[in-house]
Amino acid sequence: DSVRSVAISADGKTVVSGSFDNTIKVWNLATGQLLRTLEGNSWWIDSVAISADGKTVVSGSSDTDIRVWPLN
Questions:
Q1: Residue 38 contacts residue 69 (beta carbons within 8 Å)
Q2: Mean pLDDT over residues 23-44, rounded?
Q3: Fewest C-beta atoms under 10 Å: which of 40, 56, 69, 71?
Q4: Bridge partners, residue 9, by sequence
Q5: Other C-beta atoms within 10 Å of 57: how many?
Q6: H or E segment at 67?
Q7: Using CA atoms, how far apart are residues 16 and 9, in angstroms rounded to an integer?
Q8: Which of 72, 23, 28, 30 is CA-nearest to residue 48?
């Protein structure tokens, strides 16, 4: 589905994307490989951010929900 938001980790190795399919996808930036999919939102993802240490993703969705996701 359409991507609403992307964020790149501080080390430039990881990208996360949030989309209309209610998921966050974690990608290897160098290879483009999908590393994992984070599921559990009931609405589409409007925004994503990666913590400075690269261990956490925070998402905001259209149901006004904010979630914290571990990346490790």
A1: yes
A2: 92
A3: 40
A4: none
A5: 22
A6: strand 66-70
A7: 8
A8: 23
- List the domain boundaries for the chain: 3-70
pLDDT band at 43 (very low <50, low <70, confident <90, very high): confident
CB 14 within 8 A of CB 26: yes
DSSP string, 18-45: EETTS-EEEEETTT--EEEEE---SS-E
pLDDT of res. 57: 96
Question: What is the pTM assigned to this prediction?
Answer: 0.89
- Most distant CA pair in the chain: distance in Å? 33
Structure token digits, residue 9: 């980790």
Tokens of 46: 């409007």
Task: Give 49's strand partners.
Answer: 58
Euclidean distance between CA atoms 32 and 34, whole angstroms: 7
Is domain 3-70 classified as CATH 3.40.1350? no
